[in-house]
Specification:
single chain; 255 residues; alpha/beta; 10-stranded mixed beta sheet
Length: 255
């Protein structure tokens, strides 16, 4: 389940992620943000303080305890790996409080899905981060984040499925498909795995349609079901061009 996945990614490390797992009671609720890039705003948008200021139309699932980020990250430079303060304006400051190197992932890249199958020096590494966000509206928020620099589809097929992973939230915002990123997929294949991952909430900018990369993903990963059978109900929509270049972002409860 969730804990099993994190133990697998931690390997034999005896650092901060191991300490988190040793002290956390039960199964952590994990929010997965594939094709996340350097976007840490999801930590704000999925926090209970945000929900309190932006009530849903019906009761929503409990907020996540932990964030899982995946992106194969073909770029050579990253401010959140080199600078403690990775974003700052008059309303919000995002700080990396700590960082731990985890074992290599040993995952592949596929030219059928990504634009740059050679990756970068960062690709195939994994980090455990403590991210703090100071917001003038929501106060100070800190979350544990595991960032796996990997192709989303490969990570799903070779890490999430073998570990019988359960993810409470999946975030689909600014997903690849040429949106300033390095992929041939829009991420619509995520709709097909919501039931398999026992997902409770899907947050999306609704910019998803079948691209060649999504179709190729079905062939490369037999664990992705060929169709989606889940039913979803919208409970909140935020007009947030600043979060998604495609406009509104909607929270859907899986029913």
């Amino acid at each position: 389940m969730s804990r099993q996945l994190l133990y697998d990614l931690n390997g034999n490390n005896r650092g901060q992620l191991k300490a988190f797992l040793d002290t956390f009671q039960g199964e952590p609720r994990i929010a997965w943000y594939p094709s996340c890039g350097t976007d840490f705003r999801a930590l704000l948008y999925l926090h209970p303080s945000f929900s309190a200021l932006n009530p849903a139309t019906q009761q929503e699932p409990q907020s996540p305890d932990f964030f899982l980020y995946t992106d194969y990250y073909p770029w050579q430079y990253s401010n959140f790996l080199n600078e403690p303060i990775i974003y700052s304006d008059d309303r919000t400051i995002v700080v990396v409080e700590s960082i731990e190197q985890l074992p290599r992932l040993n995952l592949s890249l596929h030219e059928e899905i990504v634009h740059f199958p050679e990756g970068s020096n960062t690709t195939d590494h994994a980090l455990f981060l403590r991210i703090r966000i100071d917001s003038n509206k929501l106060g100070s928020i800190t979350f544990p984040v595991l960032y796996a620099f990997a192709e989303n589809e490969e990570f799903y097929c070779r890490k999430l499925i073998p570990n019988d992973s359960k993810l409470s939230h999946i975030i689909h915002v600014r997903y690849g498909g040429g949106c300033g990123g390095g992929g041939n997929a829009s991420g619509i294949w995520l709709l097909n795995v919501l039931e398999q991952l026992q997902c409770e909430m899907f947050i999306t900018d609704n910019h998803h349609y079948w691209q060649q990369g999504d179709i190729n993903a079905l062939d490369l990963c037999p664990h992705i079901p060929k169709e989606s059978l889940v039913q979803m109900e919208s409970i909140r929509t935020v007009r947030s061009v600043s979060w998604s270049g495609h406009g509104d972002v909607t929270w859907y409860v899986i029913v």
